[in-house]
Amino acid sequence: MSNGSTFPPPRRPRGAIVLVVLAAVLVAAGAGYLVLRSLRGGGGAPPGAAHPAPSASAGDGNRPDKKDGKGDGSQDSGSGAHSGKGNPHGSLKGKTVLIDPGHNTRNHNHVREIARLVNIGNERKECDTTGTSTDAGYAEASFTLDVARRARTILQHQGAKVVFTQDGDRPFGPCVDERAAAGNKAHADAAISIHADGSAVGNRGFHVILPARVTAGAADTSAIVAPSRQLGERVAGRFVAVTGSAPSNYIGGGTGLDVRSDLGGLNLSTVPKVFIECGNMRDPKDAAHLTDAAWRQNAARGISEGITDFLTS
Ligand SMILES: [Zn+2]
């Protein structure tokens, strides 16, 4: 069961696009005189008479499709704002996205190295951890890298530059402070760390973790708290819509959102950043999703669309 009401409604410009498309369809169908009469103020139709249609359709939560994108150029020139709506190819040109695949498939061979403590501003924590796995042994680190690569393909197709913290190309880590630094160094417009949880059986669903306001030592998240929440809300909203997964039933009170001050990857970030725990690897029902490649593709799509929404708003 999805709790869509906790997420931001589709943005108005999409409704405006629907309005334009609807008007065009009406004209093509030979009903143009109705529209013209309305525009001239004739027939007693109030100026806002055509507005209920788009608001009704906006409520269905449909994702933007290719058809929306095709018409974007001319429609945007009419409305004069919010170019890039409808996710046309190239809408993320000039944008940089940092993707952090959580953990590392080889961390378990480097227990001593990843146990080294690093400073995350308000405390010292392990450099990195091995992550969890399903009962059948599918590692969280394999999951995070797979979803990250799928999301990279989608975002690159949209024109974004995508930077990874690790791509299965190093023996362990990187440490959590380095993972944050990678996004900062790339001047990422948005950053996301991909994970899956290891909780009790029966605990199900995804949640997005937002940075708390932390100002301690090298950590100062005051500038990223607000934009990170916007990013997180959009990712959560699109994740629900695309995967059909419900927000976590054990964290976040049904909102799919959590706020934490104990994650180095968030504390040390100077760019908008969130974590997503895509599901609970220890729950058999969630694990069935997490181990399914088709579901992971949808997860990557939900994440990518949330990022795209954030970057084109
Ligand atoms: Zn993790």
Automatic annotation (TrEMBL):
This protein's UniProt keywords: Hydrolase, Membrane, Transmembrane, Transmembrane helix
InterPro entries per the UniProt record, alphabetical: MurNAc-LAA_cat (IPR002508), N-acetylmuramoyl_amidase_3 (IPR050695)
Biased composition (Basic and acidic residues): 62-73
Example of a GO cellular component annotation carried by this entry: outer membrane-bounded periplasmic space
Record-annotated MurNAc-LAA domain positions: 180-308
One of the GO biological process terms: peptidoglycan catabolic process
CDD domains according to UniProt: MurNAc-LAA
Protein name: N-acetylmuramoyl-L-alanine amidase
High-level lineage: Bacteria, Bacillati, Actinomycetota, Actinomycetes, Kitasatosporales
